[in-house]
Amino acid sequence: MTNELIVDGQYNIGHICTRQQCDAGRAGKVAMRWLSTTLERQDYTFGELEAQSSRFANVLTGLGFMPGDIFFTFLPRMPEQFFAFLGALKGQIVTGTLFSNFGEEALLDRVGAARAKGIITKKGYLKKITAIRNRLPELKYILLVDAPEHLAADVLSYPRLMAEVSDFFIAPPTAADTPSVLHYTSGSTGKPKGVLHVHRSVLMQSRTAAEILDLGVNDVFWCTADQGWVTGTSYGIIGPWSQGVTQVHFAGGYNPEQWFGLLERERVSVWYSAPTALRMLMREAPEFFRRFDLDALRHISSVGEPLNPEVVHWGRSVLGKEIYDTWFQTETGAIMIANRPGLAIRPGSMGQPVEGVVPAILADDGSALADNVSGNLCLKAGWPSMFATYLGNDSAYRSKFRDGYYYTGDTACRDADGYYWFQGRSDDVINTAGHLISPFEIESALIEVPAVAEAGVIGAPDELLFEKVVAFVSLHRQCEFTPELELKIRLYVTNKLSSVATPHELICVDAIPKNKSGKIMRRVLKARYLGTDAGDLSTMEE
């Protein structure tokens, strides 16, 4: 793959996703089928993607941006997001992506900490940046995609700048370890950390797009992830386009009618989405899905939160499709462990490692644990898409590595056949009366109860048990939380798992808090239950 993808030592992601595709004879092929919120469609070829991203590279060069400078996109889902991202990378400018509904403090935590030199946004978001501008001394330029003229010497019109430059730009020779993409991750405490990647990551992103997502040049691929999230860049931009694959990008949000109409009409062959979205789709009656022709769809892949076994069974029985769970992190840059075509699915399992990835289940003292014993999920360091550092916080970066292994912060176990099973975050595992319980395992059992749409489980302090199991459930429409239903849920978990896993408290809520990647925010549930500070909430769904 390295010899096929890397030509003359050029690792530049922007170049590989655009110019290299044109050189391979794909200039006239559709790279992006863009669909607005009202489903109006506009196609962009690889040639047009090359021209627009090259224009943007020339814009930044003309403004004095140099390799290593940091630039952010702060945009909703729109074509300019992709032109700017790839164009900045062509110029070896470190490129970060921000969720469009970030507030002022979330922006400050990221743009300020990164000491970014520029940002591209739209007029409707300008007020948020203006409010913190005096606290961003390094920010020299704000580019507005919807301003026909410059508003100030440092607030510039993207359309005007783009019209004034050439669409020809040759990316400078880019070494494998040149800094590339910057993503911020939020923990339960402290400020978000900037995860810095390098251009070498394209090797892993491209290979996993082909081998794990099973993408080929004739596929039509749709990744529903926002570009503010690592999946939205690794597999909504880099992986597929480095393989010359046509991608669908939809500006709208979750809407079952629109989504399945899009799958049918655009003949999507591989679909990548989040377990949360799939669980929400399970609320629809099976008859709803029979209205749509999904013959073109080979399979569905899932990312962002472990895939509950019930979702796998639903995919088979209702959609007639396999749903393959994949696991990776912002820090890993690409898929590390996964289910995929050709590997038998064990519902609830993360699957098996990607070729060349070496996981290990280690105890806290670093010793290897036996099969079927839960411990720290670690990866042997050195895979191509491994992050290079936490920007400005190298001590935190070093703390993640020990004896040649990266400690992911997740807990898991491995069975005798080499399948990995997610247990939870290392700080999520519940210790009740000396028994270690995975909240994910209980959540999976809870959503198998027909009335339960979503569930989140936490451990709360208990004088007798050390921790007690507290479960939050959100019900399907027209279902009522009655004492009879509560008893039914408790009995189901007891019979499905064990009496130890049975929730001591069962709380009905309107919705389970999730972040924008679809992960259940258990720390938010725990903070609400305990009445404590939930920490950074900037990535939580509204």
List keywords for this structure.
globular, GMP Synthetase, Chain A, domain 3, alpha/beta, 542 residues, eight-stranded mixed sheet, Rossmann fold
Describe how the helices and strands are arranged.
Blueprint: H1 2-5, H2 13-17, H3 19-26, E1 30-35, E2 41-45, H4 46-62, E3 70-74, H5 79-90, E4 94-98, H6 104-114, E5 118-121, H7 123-132, E6 141-144, E7 155-157, H8 158-163, E8 179-185, E9 193-198, H9 201-211, E10 220-223, H10 230-242, E11 246-250, H11 256-265, E12 270-273, H12 275-281, H13 286-289, E13 299-302, H14 309-319, E14 323-327, E15 337-338, E16 352-353, E17 359-362, E18 375-380, E19 389-390, H15 394-398, E20 401-402, E21 405-414, E22 420-425, E23 430-432, E24 435-437, H16 439-446, E25 452-462, E26 466-475, H17 483-496, E27 505-508, H18 522-530
Parallel strand pairs: 1-11, 3-4, 3-5, 4-8, 5-6, 6-7, 10-11, 10-12, 12-13, 13-14, 26-27
Antiparallel strand pairs: 1-2, 8-9, 9-19, 14-15, 15-16, 17-18, 18-21, 20-21, 21-22, 23-24, 25-26
Helix pairs in contact: 4-5, 6-7, 9-10
Please provide a written account of the structure.
With 542 residues, the protein is of the alpha/beta class. Among the domains are: 46-169 and 177-200, Rossmann fold (3-Layer(aba) Sandwich), CATH 3.40.50.980; 430-530, GMP Synthetase, Chain A, domain 3. Helices cover 30% and strands 24% of the residues. It contains 18 helices and 27 strands. The strands form 5 sheets. It has a 9-stranded mixed beta sheet with strand order 2-1-11-10-12-13-14-15-16. Strands 7-6-5-3-4-8-9-19 form an 8-stranded mixed beta sheet, sandwiched between helices. The radius of gyration is 23 Å and the shape is globular. The two termini are 41 Å apart. The mean pLDDT is 93.
